[in-house]
Design a protein that fits this description.
- By secondary structure, the chain is an alpha+beta fold.
- The protein is built from seven helices and seven strands; from the N terminus they run αβααββαβααβββα.
- Strand 5 and strand 6 form a beta hairpin.
Length: 206
């Protein structure tokens, strides 16, 4: 988030005081003049001066004007607002990293599921049956990857290969995308076959 304009102006004035461009006891130009100099409204200047006054950087005397009070306070004001800006940036970075962490953990869990699927498929190969099913028009897995469908999690079946036209893709990886008319060679117990067919069933039009 960008620093508000009135804060930037206050920071600029404080910097000028700190480096000695504006001396202690010196009268600062009027709000209208400052407004013209910074190309902002008098209200914006009023807010800037109010910030500096609260920190003791300047002193506002009614009818007399604005006078420089302390370069030390000006330095503290600059450091305080820089610290606030840094804190905000750090929080933003933490939020971004937390979001990345969530996405990485989500992807990692998907790959762990796929690893488990392949491992169980190899272990149970001898005790289960091979089946072939075709992805029909309207099936919800069309256009999705193996990882996205979490096929084994929903069906208890492991995909051994996908036949597409004249080509057979053995043990398709997690990024393999399903298409209409793909023929899946799967391994699963007979009682799980209805679950597979139901999962691949075309979505009914409303």
């Amino acid at each position: 988030m960008d620093m508000p304009r009135y804060v930037k102006i206050a920071m600029d004035i404080a910097q000028r005081i700190y480096v000695g461009e504006l001396q202690v006891g010196e009268k600062v130009r009027g709000r209208s003049t400052l407004a013209s100099q910074y190309s902002v409204s008098p209200e914006t200047i009023r807010r800037s001066i109010s910030l500096l006054s609260e920190m003791g950087v300047v002193k506002v005397y009614e009818k007399s004007g604005i006078f420089i009070e302390s370069p030390q306070r000006a330095y503290l004001f600059i450091q305080q607002h820089k610290a606030k800006q840094n804190l905000h940036e750090i929080r933003q970075k933490i939020n971004h990293l937390q979001h990345q962490k969530f996405e990485i953990e989500k992807e990692l869990n998907n790959y762990l599921d796929i690893l488990l699927e392949y491992s169980m498929g190899l272990e149970l190969h001898s005790s289960m049956d091979l089946h072939r099913v075709t992805i029909q028009h309207g099936s919800p897995i069309i256009g999705q990857s193996v990882a996205a469908t979490q096929f084994w999690k929903h069906t208890n079946a492991t995909i051994l290969s996908v036949i597409r036209g004249d080509e057979e893709h053995i043990s398709p990886g997690p990024n393999f995308m399903f298409e209409q008319e793909d023929v899946l060679t799967i391994i699963c117990a007979e009682e799980n076959l209805p679950k597979v067919n139901k999962y691949l069933q075309p979505t009914k039009s409303k």
